[in-house]
Amino acid sequence: MKPTKKDIRISILITGQELEALKELTWCMAEAYGLDKRIENYKGMKPIGLYRWDMDCLMNALEGAPKYMRPESWMHPVWAALLNRLQNIYSATWKP
Hints:
This protein has 96 residues and is mainly alpha-helical. The chain has four helices and two strands. The model has no long low-confidence stretch (mean pLDDT 85).
């Protein structure tokens, strides 16, 4: 999807364990048209620009992927924290 002038782009810095855990979920982002590659190539050095559809995809991946992973995985609390942070940013930017 190509952004228009009315589309809002937000910049989010994702580093450390959040970035490692998010990179484990790139297989869930097949419908995002390049978001999976952007996340794989993202180093966490500067904020990544995301549009509303990117945020939707990330939140869907974070909500759905833990059921496919082992419950004792170290990533579950990290995914929950990242999901909560993204939901807060999403609701502050695009009020439903």
